[in-house]
Amino acid sequence: MIGLNILRDECRLKIDDYGADRELQGYIRRYNDNLSDYVARIQASAFIYAVKAA
């Protein structure tokens, strides 16, 4: 597993760490679980989620 510091420092990625916000972490976990269940149900081999920039 690649650590958060490597992604930030060496790969220079901007990463929001939701680990400190327990409520938000729960929302993200439930969203991910529901999305994973949906993708498994439709037997998709891949899933792409995109957000239109404002």
Question: Can you walk me through this structure?
Answer:
The chain has one domain (4-41). With 54 residues, the chain is mostly helical. It starts with a helix and ends in a 13-residue tail after the last helix. Helix content is 50%, strand content 0%. It is built from 2 helices and no strands.
Give the proportion of residues in helices: 40-55%
Structural class: mainly alpha
* Oligomeric state of shown chains: single chain
What percentage of amino acids are in beta strands? under 5%
Helix segment tally:
2
The number of distinct β-strands equals 0
N- and C-termini, Cα separation:
32 Å
How many domain regions?
1
- List segments where confidence is low: pLDDT < 50 over at least 5 consecutive residues: none
Shape: extended
Mean pLDDT across all amino acids: 90
Q: What Rg is obtained from the alpha carbons, in whole angstroms?
A: 14 Å
Most strands sheet = none
Order of helices and strands: HH
